[in-house]
């Protein structure tokens, strides 16, 4: 009976649950879903990780390529993140060129990488104005069940920590590149961004870590990214208006997630060594 | 603190239902609004109008970066417009960047609001955006610093006009919670001026 009720009156179904301070999946408003992180999952990539946030699954692979730095920033490499939302992950997406949502989320992830300064682009430079690394960070969503940005950021940090860049000998006089694949170095990761998504239901109830059903029914989304004690992104693209106290409350709630993610990352990286 | 100067010309284009040239400091955006108009079947909603926003940079084609701005402005307008009045139709908002002095997003949001007002489409409330800058010396200012490197963080906060709550928020760079709180309060104070300017402009153009 509950199943039919849910499909006929989805909003009412959620309201009935939320009026009893519980969500249909058994969580209270500000609990997060369990997180799984597996690092170094893909052998052929230079760094990789798989993260699960409840049902949401994202694979992240990092591929390093050699390229020439831009003339205006000769001592900087490049980072190119891209999120793929294939039709496999949700019936919302169709095959073809990247959807608007995929482009918006890719750009948001790019902004988070830039703002959190987790990668120093000068670390990617091999020889100024001649040679630098370009990191292609590809995310593939396998199961789209809400809070995809959170899952991407967890996978991103996991994958960055496993990146091993080969040593490159560059002879500027002869323009000769020699890549030493046996001798590798890890990529320095300067900070650990932790992202938290909130959904606003019925203009007032704030749900942490929403599932895709909650995201579809809710009237607004907030993404907050913390690095250590600092904030590096408070993204609220429209939706229900909130008072500044409510917004600060969300920031406070997202702070709880930082130590959890740090422990998770430590455990996940232990077996990789 | 020097106040940001706002300037605005209403109905500068003849074809759109509402159009505006909006200047915020040295940043300028042209906005045009068509609506309600016909909508593609795939995009139509049976219970409300589809709000679509297209942003064009001053040179070249819009890229992935601009998609984020588009979605930001579209969601903001969607909340503000009474979309339920026009089911199975679309409201199109076109934005053309003319000049950018680091306040582009707030200027585009304000231009979009003025375009909505000038077209006379039904709205639940007005929305106004303010950009605040956190400088390297940990100082919050509303006028853009001349040198890019002096900016440690940037906040774009959009408020609604009825209760002054936060409608949308976009940030760049790193900052503490207290700095964010401060930025919200100075933007809130400035936003009152933005709404005053909107009302004055509409009165002058009667």
TrEMBL record, chain A:
Subcellular localization(s) per the UniProt record: Cytoplasm; Nucleus, Nucleolus
KW rRNA processing (keyword) present: yes
Any matching Pfam family: RNase_PH
GO molecular function annotations of the record: mRNA 3'-UTR AU-rich region binding
Keywords: Cytoplasm, Exosome, Nucleus, RNA-binding, rRNA processing
Family that this chain belongs to: Belongs to the RNase PH family.
Protein name per the record: Ribosomal RNA-processing protein 43
Species: Acanthoscelides obtectus (Bean weevil)
From TrEMBL, chain B:
Chief localisation class: nucleus
GO cellular component, one term: cytoplasmic exosome (RNase complex)
Domain of life: Eukaryota
GO molecular function: RNA binding
Coiled-coil boundaries: none
Swiss-Prot/TrEMBL GO biological process terms: nuclear mRNA surveillance; poly(A)-dependent snoRNA 3'-end processing; rRNA catabolic process; rRNA processing; U4 snRNA 3'-end processing
Pfam name, any one: RNase_PH
rRNA processing recorded as keyword: yes
Keyword annotations of the record: Exosome, Nucleus, rRNA processing
Domain Exoribonuclease phosphorolytic: 6-121
Compartment(s) where it occurs, according to its Swiss-Prot or TrEMBL record: Nucleus
Family in the record: Belongs to the RNase PH family.
Protein's UniProt name: Exoribonuclease phosphorolytic domain-containing protein
């Amino acid at each position: 009976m509950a199943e039919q009720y849910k499909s006929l009156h989805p909003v009412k179904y959620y309201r009935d649950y939320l009026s009893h301070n519980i969500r249909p999946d058994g969580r209270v408003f500000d609990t997060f879903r369990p997180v799984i992180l597996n690092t170094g999952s893909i052998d052929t990539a230079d760094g990789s990780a798989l993260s699960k946030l409840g049902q949401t699954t994202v694979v992240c692979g990092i591929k390093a390529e050699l390229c020439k730095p831009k003339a205006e920033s000769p001592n900087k490499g490049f980072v190119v993140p891209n999120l793929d939302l294939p039709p496999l992950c949700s019936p919302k997406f169709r095959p073809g060129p990247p959807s608007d949502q995929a482009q918006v989320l890719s750009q948001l992830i790019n902004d988070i990488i830039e703002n959190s300064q987790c990668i120093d682009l000068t670390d990617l430079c091999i020889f100024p104005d001649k040679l630098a690394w370009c990191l292609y960070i590809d995310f593939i969503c396998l199961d789209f069940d809400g809070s995809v940005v959170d899952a991407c950021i967890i996978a991103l940090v996991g994958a960055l920590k496993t990146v091993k860049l080969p040593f490159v000998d560059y002879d500027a006089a002869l323009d000769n590149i020699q890549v030493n694949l046996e001798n590798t170095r890890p990529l320095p990761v300067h900070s650990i961004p932790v992202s938290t998504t909130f959904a606003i239901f019925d203009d007032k109830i704030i749900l942490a870590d929403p599932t895709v059903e909650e995201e579809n029914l809710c009237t607004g989304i907030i993404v907050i990214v913390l690095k250590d004690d600092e904030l590096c992104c408070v993204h609220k693209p429209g939706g229900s208006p909130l008072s500044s106290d409510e917004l600060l409350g969300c920031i406070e709630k997202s702070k709880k997630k930082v130590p959890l993610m740090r422990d998770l990352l430590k455990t996940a990286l232990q077996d990789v060594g | 603190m020097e106040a940001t100067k706002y300037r605005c010309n209403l109905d500068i284009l003849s074809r759109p239902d509402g159009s505006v040239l909006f200047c915020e400091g040295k940043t300028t955006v042209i906005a045009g609004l068509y609506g309600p108009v016909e909508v593609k079947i795939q995009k139509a909603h049976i219970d409300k109008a589809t709000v679509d926003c297209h942003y064009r940079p001053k040179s070249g084609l819009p890229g992935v970066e601009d998609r984020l701005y588009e979605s930001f402005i579209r969601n903001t307008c969607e909340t503000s417009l009474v979309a339920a009045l026009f089911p199975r139709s679309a409201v199109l908002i076109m934005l053309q960047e003319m000049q950018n002095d680091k306040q582009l997003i707030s200027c585009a949001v304000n231009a979009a609001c003025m375009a909505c007002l000038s077209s006379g489409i039904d709205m639940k409330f007005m929305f106004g955006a303010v950009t605040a800058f956190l400088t390297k010396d940990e100082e919050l200012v509303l006028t853009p610093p001349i040198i890019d490197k002096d900016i440690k963080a940037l906040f774009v906060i959009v408020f609604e006009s009825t209760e002054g709550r936060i409608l949308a928020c976009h940030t760049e760079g790193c900052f503490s919670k207290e700095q964010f709180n401060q930025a919200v309060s100075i933007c809130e104070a400035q936003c009152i001026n933005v709404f005053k300017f909107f009302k004055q402009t509409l009165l002058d153009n009667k």
